[in-house]
Every structure is written in C-alpha cells, then in structure tokens.
C-alpha cells in the first residue's frame, strides 16, 4: 500500500513538472502544490484513458500509456488551475 502511494506521488510529480514545461507562462506554485496538481492530473488522465480505451488497473498499474495519460491529465489540470488563478487575480 505504501509503495502504491509513493508511486502515485512520484508519477504525479513527474507528470506535473513536464506539464509545467509544456504549458506556456509562469506558474507560481510550491512543490507540494505541483505534486498535488500532478496527482489530480494523473487521476484525470486515468479516467480519460478508461473512458476512451476501457483499460484499468487490472491491465497493469505502470504502463507507458498511463504515463502519457498522466501528463495529458496534468496539462488539463494545470490549464484549469491557471484559468481559476486569472479570475482570482482579476477580482483582487
């Protein structure tokens, strides 16, 4: 169980760091916020992968397609996070 949690955190962090490189602009986020957003992005990517391709954890937790899906989900989560930050900055 601890190994699964560590794997989720590491894959989420890597996915979000790559997403931050792919999405233009500066993102003012702490390392913990990056990891948290990466985990959320991994969940989004896993959900989209399941919906589109009907693959799940029974096919193996660590797959190259899962890493790519995590990065795509992290990019989606980062773009949504940036949009909410812009709205918040405009109100202040």
TrEMBL record:
Signal peptide: none annotated. The keyword Transmembrane helix applies. The chain crosses the membrane at residues 31-53, 65-84. One of its GO terms (cellular component) is plasma membrane. It is found in: Cell membrane. It comes from the Bacteria. Keywords: Cell membrane, Membrane, Transmembrane, Transmembrane helix. InterPro entries: Transgly_assoc. Belongs to the UPF0410 family. This is GlsB/YeaQ/YmgE family stress response membrane protein. It comes from Nocardioides mangrovicus.
């Amino acid at each position: 169980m601890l190994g699964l949690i560590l794997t989720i955190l590491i894959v989420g962090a890597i996915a979000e760091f790559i997403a931050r490189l792919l999405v233009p602009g500066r993102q003012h986020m702490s390392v913990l916020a990056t990891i948290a957003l990466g985990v959320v992005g991994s969940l989004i990517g896993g959900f989209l992968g399941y919906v589109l391709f009907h693959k799940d954890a029974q096919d193996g937790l660590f797959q190259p397609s899962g890493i790519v899906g995590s990065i795509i989900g992290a990019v989606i989560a980062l773009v949504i996070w940036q949009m909410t930050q812009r709205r918040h900055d405009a109100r202040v």
